[in-house]
Amino acid sequence: MELWDVYTKTREKTGRTHVRGSVDRMIEGDYHIVIDVWTFLPDGRLLLSQRDPLKPSGLLWEGTGGSILTGETSLMGAVREVEEEIGLQLNPDDLVLAGEIIRNDYLLDVYVTRFPQMIFIEELSFQEGEVVDAKLVTKEEFFEMGRAGLLTKNMLPRYELFQELMDSYFQPIPTK
């Protein structure tokens, strides 16, 4: 059972919680916090994960994300979700909050991070029911996937919203 804190639109806790998927829907004006993490490598490639085929938008590619749990901060939830879904341990100090997007019943925090070393997809572990694969893509490959309809519907709009920051992370770190 996944339990969420309920917030107002201005991120004040209401003191109530909500059970994910419960028949009791959230009240209009109630929100929960969702995170989206864009993980880049030192060479400027973006780590994408492929959704489980049984989930909505199954087999499409996206960053790592999900709802934060009761008692978590947005940052704590971001670190937990990445570790749960793909087995990658992020340093919370390395995550940069790109911004917030307000949706019908959730507040989405978009984070960007650069993992400090190169990784191999074979070293990742995928959460059953959530992720079935991962890949590393260049900026050009990211846009090719978007044109081919292989990304979840929110990936390109989120990139465009935070384009300047995303573009800076798509650049490799200069080596000495």
TrEMBL record:
Domain Nudix hydrolase residues, every copy: 30-164
SUPFAM superfamilies: Nudix (SSF55811)
Pfam families: NUDIX
PROSITE patterns: NUDIX, NUDIX_BOX
Keyword Transmembrane helix belongs to the record: no
InterPro entries for the chain: NUDIX_hydrolase-like_dom_sf, NUDIX_hydrolase_CS, NUDIX_hydrolase_dom
Keyword annotations of the record: Hydrolase
Signal peptide region: none
Name of the molecule in the record: NUDIX domain-containing protein
Organism, as annotated: Chryseomicrobium palamuruense
Biological classification of the source: Bacteria, Bacillati, Bacillota, Bacilli, Bacillales
